[in-house]
Model the fold of this input.
Amino acid sequence: MKRSKNRPLVVSLLVGTLVVAGVGLALIQTPRGAAQSEEVLLRYPDYPPTPTIGPNPTLPPQLAGASTILAQSDFADASALRSWEFVDQSFVIAGAEGQWAVADGRLAQDYAGLVRDRSTHEVAALTGDPAWLDYTVHMSFYDEFNGTAGVIARYTGSDPTTASYYRIRALTSTFSATPKLVLERVDQGVTHALVEINGPGFTSRIWHTLGLTVRGSSLQATLDGQVVAEATDSTPLPAGRAGIYTRASGGILFDDFVVTTP
Amino acid sequence: MRRLPLMLSMICAIVLSTCVVPASAQTSTTPKLLKEIDIGDSAASKFANVTVSGQTVFIGSGAKPGGTDTHAYVWSFAEQAASIGPGQDLGLAPGQTDYSSVAVATAPDGTIYAVWSSFIDRSLSIRHRDSNGTWGARRIIDSGSGSYFFYPKVAVNSLGQVFVIWGIDKNIPLSLVISNDQGVSWSSKYTTSIGIYNRSTSIAAGPNGQVVIGFTTANVAPAVAIWTGSELTTEVLSGTNTGAQPGVSIGPDSKIYAAWRGATKTGATSGVFYAERQGANNWTLPEQQQLREGNVSNTVNVVVDGAGSVHLAWNMVVDVPRFFYSIRQAGQAQFSTAVTTNVSNIYTSHFALSPSGAFVHAALEKFTGNESSLTYARFSGSSVEVAKPTAAPKINDDAQTIKLPSPPATVSVGFIGVSGSPTEIRWRWGSEPTDTEYNSVGTAGWQTFSPTTTLTIAIPSTVSSTATCLPVRLYTQVRTATQVTGLAQFDDVVLDTGVTAAVRITNPHLRQVNLGSGNGASDGDPTYTRDPLVYVEAYGINECSGLKELAFTSSTPITVTVSNNSFASVMPFPGTLVAGSNTVTVNLTDKVGNSQNYTQTLTYDTTPPVLDVASPGTVSATANLSDTILSSLQFSNITVTDTGGYPGRGFWGVWLANSRTPVTNPSTDTNLIWTPVAVPGTDKSFTISNWSMATGIPSADRTAGDYTIYARFLDGAGNPTSGVISTTLNLSAITEPKVNLPFVRR
Done:
């Protein structure tokens, strides 16, 4: 008699358990609706995770201990941009100008135009005194996907498309173009190679340093602290500003820019 | 009550089982990269634009393959090409390739339009390529020293109107002009109601003359401008500084689709966005959404194919800048996993679909370190094949054989099994139609098609002039308004060019007819008759459809049915028969209606010829030496007059009879058996060789002794002379011809 009294309770518990389990499983199996719009609607193939940007390279001893520093910037904040002039080195329409920004203590080439398009046009960030003649310009760069980095010295001219200057220009190894490293003189917008170095190009997504020393008619370029090119220009360019060169493709960071007397 | 728990448990199990849905059923098929081809002569190319016509891909871009001035180029190649040849130089476009760019579009009739700007010349030009592959002359759409024509785009709507858009400067409205005559003349300029951010734009055409433009507003928001037929109405898709560079498309249901990129490189306003227009200024969720955040640059392109599948492509940095393509199959909720190219460092891109939706053709602007160039990439497109339209042709109500009409020969062609809403058709005799080989009239052979219309299709002379009784094949091919092209279908038909028959209209008393001699000989000249009868024989020779009827065309026409493609009979002479020459015309028709008259002149002659009584001539007989039963009969100076009309000597032949005993009145003696023998020629003296003395003589009487030979003379109609000449031949022995057979060894 006692057992028969408990039977409805046991049955009810069993049925209740099954119903709860069933509803739960059903909810799990139900396709996600609009309410779950957090789900990824577009899938990409698997790619290796983007490496974390590591610490900047330390300055070479000769630069760190240089007695005469003409200019220096670690891009600590946006105010660092005040001492720079940013130019497009070819004609661009209004709204397509190269953009620059300071982010996380670094100078970033920030694509082109308001919409931040990736553009292949050449851009430069210039600083310093037009009267600078003999000096070393040195900086660190971290390329993500831009592929082009360079250092400028003795920059003169008001129109970027007809300016004159020396430049060491480096390309990433993923580009098919050669040479990957060129020490060149740009005369009123026309480029003349002084030294071409055939090599694999720099590796992206690691820090590198790039330097260019101009002293009279002598030029010397370094990559990662190693001299990679030397040249003598019989008709050296006059004094001019220093700068950074790249393309308006975004994806590249600059830091520890310093200009010292040799 | 005891069963309740069990029942509830079973119900739960059933509910659970119905809730289990395989996850894979909700994912789309991933498209595949099929081919990448670097375009060799595309140095400095930027902002390439691509279109497809039929099975041919066209890529337009400014380029400097020679390293000098920019030229406008179009590369064309088959949709499954393994290589790409040199581009077609359309003309100078001086200036940086950033701002001297080329756009291409396909018109509904297959015409290709190429529009390009020249930054230095400050001009906007257009050329079009017809179905024969010939480019027309360059026409200047607009020019002016104070003008800019940045990033032109072109589209051709379903009405054949050519739409060209371009940007002028930042924060200035986008410009549009329209041509109704293939670019010869242009409308006045239409503009958007708001200024644009002067970067690449997009344009798409759809059914019912629809055109939509995608652009970025000056304050960096994606927007579309919809052509209403008289103006552009603008709809902004999201807020300020949220997105840019939308691609646009119009689906087969006239719905407008847009896709764009976020204004930033990370976060909620980055990546790929997509929306479907529900109504005026109504681009509501969930169709409008961020598909995926990411570092996306330049235009996101979208194309909706004829089946309603949505194709998306964009440029994004993952590890390096890449081109991505994804598809949302019609009827599915999710886009496929994106697929990318092997080639990287992609800056701008554009793509177009094959009309079938099976292939995606992308033109990619690749940067190699010093300058840009183009790479073409081909992907598999819609894995759910777009339903291809069908329409099976039936020539002349599916006739097997038809009469070849008089030039210009045509057939009527109806269609069965029409599906897939075809709107255009082309055809070709003997082979499947192609873009360059067809017999129909229109660009690439395409012309308007209505499923209920019976077409009148011309038969080319090359087909009709070589027609035999073998079938000729008409191939037809239909396509939809979205240029989904069906497979070629065909129908066979035999073109029966006419009645081809052998016909004899002759004397009914010829030996071959075996009518019987009656009151004359059982042979004679075929063109004579002594009775009001005519023998007609007809049978088809290479007659494709077969003979159907034979008729005498006379005042009293007679028509008889022909069976088994042949006819032979003695028939009453049709119409009124007169003594002398009569024309008999027989008309034959075949089973498809071809008709042919055959005419013969017959002389009706009932008057016997007359053997001259005074000097009828002579006959003598000489037995053959070896076969005595055969003899040679020599006739000399036979004199006959035939008033019935047999020309010349007055007789056609002789009528011979043998007798073992002389008879008193041979012309009336009924025991004589008369045999007609033709005597060709016109001589009155002649010889009949190998006359058998056994003719008409019973076997028992064929013994040695005298044989009397009687001869009468026959006119063409077989009328004999009443006069008779005779001769006697004595055979001492009877020898019959022998045939020596070859010895056969057992």
The mean pLDDT of chain A is 86. Chain A has two helices and 15 strands.
